[in-house]
Amino acid sequence: MFTPGQVYIMGVVNCTPDSFSDGGLFFETDKAVAHGLELLEQGADILDIGGESTRPFSEPVPLEEELKRVIPVVKKLRKKTDKLISVDTQKAEVARQALLEGADIVNDVSALRADPKMAEVVEEFKCMVCVMHMLGSPKDMQVAPHYKNCLKEIGDFLGERVAFCQGLGIPKEQIIIDPGIGFGKRLEDNLDLIANLSFFKRFGAPILIGISRKSFLGQITGIEEPARRDVPSLSALIWSVLQGANIVRVHNVEWTKQALQVISSISAHVRSNSAYQGFSRGCSN
């Protein structure tokens, strides 16, 4: 469960050789586990463990290979921490085995649509689940994406998925929604979603935002290397938090933690300082 008003940091653990940002760095089990523990030390509240890249134009990974990448990492990390563990997968069997090993969240970029058995797994375990909007699949999502009304279409989709999960017996507090920044979106779509993130508060579910190091930030800044996009990532992340994001999925946990500490401190000061509030009201007259 997530506490209203608190922002949770989800640290990314890519057990893949080809993820867009850090593919291959943590491909081996022990390296992935060590990286996860490092992210926890830096302030991560959740670890998101994935064994299949969902970067644009990526190919699916066979089930046995994804199991080999993900399950040992979940198992070892579960023995070392009681923090929330999320499994980033579209495959029901990967989710099932990860949940049996102690994972807490199923983070499915297909919103339980890619594998018809995923809904059965979520219903069986009554686990937390993240449903994300994606136009098409990772292989084709960036091939001329188009919307008539980006906010409405994605809002309609997420509303339907929330209702679907509730129908599986999952309380709304355990359903996480993700508008899917970069997943079948143009630059203007990503900016529209971030600028109007509060639009999705109407569903009463925690909002996850995954902005970290994504290509639209490179389009804006001209920074080609994903690993050098942490400052642009923080800029978009801060806006998202001020718009109501509850969970931020990031690669650089240390910098994110520091940014959130500053935001929290300023917010607490404004709420508690009546003299400041009076001054603000006076200035608005």
Features:
single chain, 285 residues, alpha/beta, TIM Barrel, 10 helices, 8 strands, globular
Question: Could you explain how this protein is built, in words?
Answer:
With 285 residues, this protein is an alpha/beta fold. It has a single domain, classed as TIM Barrel (Alpha-Beta Barrel), CATH 3.20.20.20. Helix content is 45%, strand content 13%. It has an eight-stranded parallel β-sheet with strand order 6-5-4-3-2-1-8-7. Helix 8 packs parallel to helix 9. The longest helix is centred in the last third of the chain and has 20 residues.
Provide a compact summary of the structure.
Helices cover 45% and strands 13% of the residues.
- What's the helical proportion of residues? 40-55%
In total, how many beta strands? Answer: 8
CATH homologous superfamily placement: Dihydropteroate synthase-like
CATH architecture name: Alpha-Beta Barrel
* End-to-end gap: 42 Å
Gross geometry:
globular
